[in-house]
Structures are given as C-alpha cells and as structure tokens.
C-alpha cells in the first residue's frame, strides 16, 4: 500500500517511520526538505511539493503543526488542492480547530476528493511506538480503506462521525490534560513549599484514584526542571484556546480550563513556549519581576 | 491486638470491619451509638465515650468527619484527653488541617500519651477493601507498633516525619483530585454540548496518558447523574479550602485549584454538599436562576 | 453636512438622532427597515442598501452589532464596497476586533476610499445624550473632516493612530468594565448573604476610592433584578473574548478577565445574553440545576 | 474629650493627629514606643501599655495591623482586658475578620466594658485628611458617645448593627477593590503590549462609566513602577482571604475574587508584600523564572 506523508515534525517523523517499518511505500514531503533525509535512508521517496505527493499517491496523510500550516499545505501554490480529485483520499491527522477542518474538507470535496480528519491523542513516544489513539471523522469509506495505516500508527482508532468531531474530541481531551498538568504542578510546588518531598508525593499519587501515566511519566523530569518537548507548550496552549473557543460557541463555562489557559499564557510570556507543556510548572514556582 | 475505634461514618465503618475480620479485638464508639450495631454483630465491643474507649485500649484509632469533630472527640467532656496517658497511643486518621493535628498532638503529649496522625487517601470502596493509602506522621515508635493495623486497613503506608506532614500530604493529593474532577466535568459537558458522545470521551480517555481510576470509576455514574457519596462534596471543598490556606501560608499561588474551589462552593450553594464530590459536574451544566 | 448612517440598534438610533438634531442631513439604513421610521419622522432620508447610502453620501458612519454584521455590510451584495471610492469616507463605529477592522480598512483602501475606525465607550444613555467617548484610528485627514459629527455624538474624541488601535482600546476598556461588574456582583451577593444590606454597600462604595458611575448607575437596578439592556450581555462577553484573544496574541496572562469571561458565558448558558451585561449578577446568586 | 489611641502605623498616625488637631486630649501607645515621638511633640501623652491607656481614658481607640495584633493588644499581659470595665469604651478600628471582632467584643463585655468595631475604608491619605469612611457596629450608645471623634477622623460614618457587620462590610469593599486593581493592571499591561499608550488608557478611563479615584490616583504611579505603600499588598491579600472565607462560610462562589487573590499571593511570593497593593501590577507583566 502506497501513502503520501506531509509533515515530518516531532510527530510526523515517528508516524511515517512506523509506516515504512510495516511495509508501506511512503512518499514524504516536509517544508524543510532536509528533514526527509532520515526517512529516505529508510526507504521513503521524496515528493517536491504537497501537490506532487498527492499526484503520486492514492492516499495522502498530513501531520502539521497548527491550523495555518494545515491550511497552507492545502490551499497555497503547489498545494494539495492542485492535484486532489476523484479516487484520491486526503487524511489530515494534524490537531486543528473544527472550522479549519471543515474548510479543508469542503475544498477537497469540491475537487471530487475524499477527506478524513484524524487527529491523534499521544505525543512523541506513542508516535514512535505506534501507540497513538486516532480520532477519525469524515468519510466512512475512506476510513475503512486507510485503516491498515491507522493500525500501524495507533493502538486504537475511533470513528466519530462527521468532519469536525475528531478535532473536537481531540480538543476536549487536551483541555482536560492541560488543566491536569496545572493541577499537578500546583500540587508539586505546594508540597515542596510545605516541607514535603515532591518525590514522595509522586509515590503517593501513583497508588491512588488519580494515578495516571502522565503524572508518573512527567513528574520526575519536572522536579528536575527538564522539559524536553514531547508536546510543545505553545501547542498545548493553542489547544486550550481552541477548546475554550468551542465552549464559547456552545455557551459552556469552563473556569478551571480558563485558569489553566492563563497559566500557559504566562508560561509563553516567560519564553517557555517551545519547551514541553509540563514547563507550566515554572509559572507556579517563585518568579521574579 | 486490641484497638479502640472512634467514628463509624462512611470510612470508619469499612476500616473497623477490616480490623475485626483480621482478628483484631475492636472497641468502637460513635456519636450516634446505633451505628455501632453492625460492628457489634461482627464481634466488636462498645465504648460509651471516647474516654472509655481510650481507658480500655492501649491504641485508639479515630476516623472523624472534620476538624471540629476531631477536636471535640479529644477535648470535650468524656473525651480522649481524660484517659490518655503514658503507654497509650492515639492515632487520628481523620483528614484535618495541620494546625488541628498539631493542637491534638500537643494535648496528647502533655498527658504523656503518644500520637500519630495518619490521614488516608481513598474513599468508601478502598476503605472497605483494605486498600487505603495511609499517610502517617508523628512518633516513629508508635508508627511501628500500629503497623499491623495499618497493614489491614491499607495497601501502603508512608511515614512522613513530623506531625502535620500527613495532613499536608493528604491535602495536596485531594487538591489535585479536586481540580481534576472539575477538569473532567468541564470536558464531559463540553463534549456533550459539542455533539460528541460523553461515553466515547470516557473510552478515549481510558486509553491515553491521563487515564486514571477516578475517570473510569466515576465517569459513567456522572453521565447518569448518579452521585452516591463515596466522598461527600462538602468534605472535598473543605480540603480544597485547607489546601489553599496552606498555599496562602507559604505564598504559593494556585489559580487552578482556586477556580476549582469556587466551583465546589457553587455546588454547595446549589444544595449538593452531601452528594459525592463528582456532583460538581452539575455546576458545569446549564443552570437556572 | 450630509452623512450616511448604517445600523439603528440601541446605539445607532441615539447617535443618528443627535446628528439630526444638530442639523446634519442624515441618510439611514437598517437591516430591518421599519426601524428607520422614527428617524425618518425626524427628517432622515432612507437608503435602500448600504451601497445606496454610500453612493449618496460623502461620509458614511456605521454602528453595527458585531464583527459578522460589520463585515456583511461592507462585503455582501449591495454592500459598502460596491460604491465606496475616491473622495468618500467610511467611518465604522462598531466594536469589532482589530483583524476585522483591518480587513475592512484594506478593502476600502483598495477601492480608493478612506477609512476610520471609531468605536465608542458608553452605552445607550451616553449615545442618546451625545456623551460618548470616541476612539478613532486610521486616516488622520478623514478624522479631521468628520470631527464635527464626532463632536455631536461624543463628549471627547481620541485619535489613536493606525487602524486597529481604536478597536484595541475599546476592548481594553470593556475588559476592565467586564471584570468590574463581576467583582461588584460578587460583592453584592456576599453582602446580602452575610447579613448586610446591599443598599448600604452601595452607599459605602459611593464614598470611597472605587466609587464610579457604573456602580451607582446599575447597582439599584441590579438589586431589584432589573436588567433592561443598555449594553447586552452577549456583546460584553464577545468583547471579553476578543480582549482575551488580543492578550493571547501578545502573551499577556489575564486570570481575572478570564474568570469574568467564564461568568459571562455561564450567564449566556442561563439565557441571559440579551439582557444588560449586569445580569451576570444572576450567576453569583444561588442557582438551581 | 479624652481618648486613648493604640497603634501608630500608617493609618493610626494620621488618625490620632487629626484628633489632636481638633482639640482632643490623646494618650497614645505603640509597640515600638519611639513612633509616639511625633505625636507627643504635637501634645499627646504616652501610655506605657495598652492597660495603662485604658486605665487612664474613658474611651480607647485601636488601629492595629491585623487580627493577631488586634488580639494581642487585648488579651496579652498588660493588655486592654486588664483595665477595661464598667463605664469604659473600647473602639477597635483595625480591619479584622468577624470572628476576631466577636471574640474581642465578648471579652470586653465579660469585664463590663463597652465595645464598638469600626473598621475604615480609605488608606494613608484619607486617614491624614480626616476623610475616612467609618463602618461602625456594636453598642449603639457607645457609637453615639464616640461620634465626635469619628467626625474628626472620617467624612462619613455608618452604623451597621451587631458586632461583625463592620468587619464584614469592610471586607466586601476591599474584596471589590482588590479585584478591580487586578482588572486595571491587566488592562494596563494589555494596552502596552498591544501598542497602545497606557497613559491614553488612563485618559479614556477617566471619562467613562468606570472612572474612579483609584484608577486616577494610582495609575500614573503604577505605570512608573512606583508602589509606595498607602495600603500594603500583604494586608490587601489578607482581606481578600478573609472575604473569600466569609464567602465560603455562606456558600457564595466568587471566581473573580478568587483569581484576584491568587494574583496577590503570586505578588507576595515575588517579595512585593510590603509595597502598595497596586504592585500586583508586576504579576501581570512579563516575569522570569
């Protein structure tokens, strides 16, 4: 099975490697073409432009950093729209807001192409390990055709109905996660400032009703001030903002998410946007003006 | 081994039953004495007053609902102070603030008695199943003597040093939990209002980095509007308040916990204080004035 | 002097009436044309479409409810763009976000027209009394030409530089106001629930460092539960959202505004969006689920 | 008329000077006695202890920094309780929580003395100018006797009924003020970061519905980073905390006040507690970790 793959960032690289390792023929494109080298060494072909990738492949998967990048790859010169058409499928796995997803969906459909949005839950490690959770929505027939690729990249795929539902589900999950990492950060600082050992807090948390992989996985690194980006803070904050906008649209008041979002914004103002989203921990510590 | 047990509420009942089932001789007391019947049927003795229980037993465990109750049992007429003394140990497993714990500790010490605070993490079910996490602090020697009882009531015990540290650790854990149940509630409502199935959200969450027993255990009941109290909301809000006060004392700003606390207060104003703390979910739904 | 006037809502009606009363020749248009009747009775002409108004008048002022309305009047069929051109000025006094303002500005300029944004501070009463504060930005020459009209509608006009600055200043002011009405509401409820007379609170506030016209003007009505819309809550919430988005763009963390915004959203979910923005008071009272 | 005066801090000094200037005979006491020198130079007598002052004077006024100081002056050795009794009145003008006020009231009454709480609204300048707002509660007869002194220190006095009501009213007012100074700070930073001149924002605000003396009085100094303490931030934060506790007691959810309180706590953690409360402005600016 041959697939195109647009976007080789933190996530896309791991995902496309898994496709290669499992025998897919993969044609890759990245804005900075040099990032393709490692994939080429593993057997991937290169497409010069998004349009060229789509022209060559029946199915093209995209994994881009944000809504502007997702739109650019489709609508700009040499973009997906130039070569998409009847019999071809475009699967956007980027995390975008639902209006962006809908806009792309409609443009693809207007050219006779097929569209699926399929944002993922999971960051760098699950992407590398093929352990993502895939939240697909759009055309059911395309969903069924592309399932073999999803099976290689993820541990579980949900089909959620109409386009936009994948984006929305992703935002809801990430919003909860963003509030949780703030709650966790507040707890770690409170423990330390109150004379408790934050490592003991991790042990206690690991045994109780709120034990979860994120606390266990990120806690020790956070205590050490290590924020290598598995999921960059600026992207997490973007997801909080989009989730809050979705709540605004539906008149859902979400005071905890709103407070968490402001903490992420504070972190951005401190220059932490490119670090892991767990760097919001720094905002809870003593700061200087 | 013979122990006294003061307080047979949601938690105390399960805990004292586990002591009985594992061969401890238990003398129980409860403000409403009729609540002792079930324990007596299983072999417990009754003490007429806290003082009587302490007089009879070398070790007395208390599990009371809040700081005023914890203080009353010790300082009021017929209270623990009247009979505690050299060679006797008092183990308070209630969740109280650290000034309360310290006050009790000093009073017990002034009579020559020994003191351990040992609040627990876990609610009704873990109490019944002997699966609590016990956060002990105070006199190390008493801790070692009472360990057999802890082993029956809990799955893991931490010894945290000086009196107050158990209370503080408990508050930190519950504060994180309180913020999390709010984040979770906001996500559930946002999902529903955005056209997603909240049950699918539970499935997606169960597979990802923030999967945890609380989401899995409480989510389905919350969606149904079922809030049988495992841990009453008013007690959760009390713990948020005390944790925020601990933060105030140490100049730790905790905006997410503060927002969560206000949601719990809103729930209290709606008459939900005696339901499970997950009833904060109701505050996120559409309300009427 | 002849001016066109698009939009006769709560604000636009008072503003256009002041122009008429001070001798301006005014041609009005409103989506629901029947709303023009009162103005016609006072001597206004009617334009059938925005394009018709602009064709007839050298200067056209617009006062529309939100960004979509402001865009629609310019870009839709029979819109401003069809007839704007060299020698004509378009002054948009609606409260919109700065991207909207910029988009309109560029479109007008591309046709050779002149543009000024001029959002106002002040609601129904100041609009009727010609006591608005006008926050103008854009082409300085047009600003000078239209000053006679501004003098009639407002008590003070600021020229703030490039297009977008008027919109931004307006959002900053409304954001502060939105947080203040929440703080005030919380104080009124806290007073009442604590056994104090809310009217006495108004008296105390009126004498101190935070005395301001809004507390004095709205307080008595709020206590009575009277929320006749001077400035509809849904528009206030829109301004909070836009101000927070401006903060997001510039990495400014604003936790108090964010909390206030969530309260306005809660009010919207309670069906209070069309009432005065002071109806956020209802969210602080006891609610039912 | 002869009065005692306990506490010569920022507020007490101005207040007692006004008494002296208007012909009252004043006996002063301060923990650091050297602070009495300036008053003595103006004609005041010195009392060696609170007990000595009360022994000498029919009426004694206290103006202390916080609840512990207010309690200490009454209950400690050489305190008010030792000499208060029938025919003597004690007027506590400190800002304390209502349980503190009630505790003092009951102790004074148990000795046969008379009590009035009379916290004030207003800081350094109004204290010096005799322009305070006085929120009295307690014994009506004492209120009437002490009115001549109130008239000299304040521009308006309210009698609010039973002891505790003065404290509560003060907290409500200060809570609103604390949220407002945060809203104002957020607006100033947002303006500056968005390319607007913060001084123009002050001008715009001064003309509109939310114009108030605090914005006008503190704004220019805040922009310059000048926070000479008229009302220290740590005391403002204490009042927010007590107001939130009053809300907790009455199940009033106050999310905006809670967010403002966390900002003040952040300011404390940054070492700004002794500056003016407007220094919370610093927390909104870009911070470093």
Automatic annotation (TrEMBL), chains A, B, C, D:
Provide the reaction this enzyme catalyses: glycolate + NADP(+) = glyoxylate + NADPH + H(+); 4-hydroxybutanoate + NADP(+) = succinate semialdehyde + NADPH + H(+)
Q: Which regions form coiled coils?
A: none
- The active site consists of 170
Q: Which residues form the 6-phosphogluconate dehydrogenase NADP-binding domain?
A: 2-161
Q: Which residues form the 3-hydroxyisobutyrate dehydrogenase-like NAD-binding domain?
A: 164-282
Point out the signal peptide segment: none
Domain of life (superkingdom): Eukaryota
Has UniProt tagged this entry with the keyword Oxidoreductase?
yes
Q: Which UniProt keywords apply?
A: NAD, NADP, Oxidoreductase, Stress response
List, in alphabetical order, the Gene Ontology terms for molecular function in this entry.
Answer: glyoxylate reductase (NADPH) activity; NAD binding; NADP binding
Q: GO cellular-component terms in the record?
A: cytosol
Write out the similarity annotation.
Belongs to the HIBADH-related family. NP60 subfamily.
- List the PANTHER family hit by this protein, alphabetically: GLYOXYLATE_SUCCINIC SEMIALDEHYDE REDUCTASE 1, OXIDOREDUCTASE GLYR1-RELATED
**Which purpose does this protein serve, as stated in its record?**
Catalyzes the NADPH-dependent reduction of glyoxylate to glycolate as well as succinic semialdehyde (SSA) to gamma-hydroxybutyrate in vitro. May function in redox homeostasis and play a role in oxidative stress tolerance by detoxifying glyoxylate and SSA generated in glycolate metabolism and GABA metabolism, respectively.
Protein's name according to its UniProt entry: NAD_binding_2 domain-containing protein
The species this protein was found in: Cephalotus follicularis
The opening ranks of the lineage are: Eukaryota, Viridiplantae, Streptophyta, Embryophyta, Tracheophyta
């Amino acid at each position: 099975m041959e697939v195109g793959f647009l976007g080789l960032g933190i996530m896309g690289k791991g995902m496309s490697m898994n496709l290669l390792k499992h025998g897919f023929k993969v044609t890759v494109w990245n804005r900075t073409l040099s990032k393709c080298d490692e994939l080429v060494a593993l057997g991937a072909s290169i497409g010069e432009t998004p349009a060229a990738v789509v022209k060559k492949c029946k199915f093209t998967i995209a994994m881009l950093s944000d809504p502007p990048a997702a739109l650019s790859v489709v609508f700009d010169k040499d973009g997906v729209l130039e070569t998409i058409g009847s019999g071809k499928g475009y699967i956007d796995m980027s995390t975008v807001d639902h209006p962006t997803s809908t806009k792309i969906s409609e443009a693809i459909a207007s050219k006779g192409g097929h569209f699926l949005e399929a944002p993922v839950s999971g960051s760098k490690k699950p992407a590398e390990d093929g352990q993502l959770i895939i939240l697909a929505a759009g055309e059911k027939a395309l969903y069924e055709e592309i399932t073999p690729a999803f099976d290689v990249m993820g541990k579980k795929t949900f089909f959620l109905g109409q386009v936009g539902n994948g984006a929305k589900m992703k935002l809801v999950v990430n919003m909860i996660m963003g509030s949780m990492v703030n709650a966790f950060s507040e707890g770690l600082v409170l423990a330390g400032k109150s004379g408790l050992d934050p490592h003991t807090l991790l042990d206690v948390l690991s045994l109780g009703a709120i034990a979860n992989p994120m606390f266990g996985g990120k806690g020790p690194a956070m205590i050490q001030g290590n924020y290598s980006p598995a999921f960059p803070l600026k992207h997490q904050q973007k997801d909080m903002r989009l989730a809050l906008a979705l709540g605004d649209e539906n008149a859902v008041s979400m005071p905890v998410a709103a407070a968490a979002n402001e903490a992420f914004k504070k972190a951005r103002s401190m220059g932490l946007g490119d670090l892991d989203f767990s760097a919001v921990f720094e905002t809870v510590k003593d700061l200087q003006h």
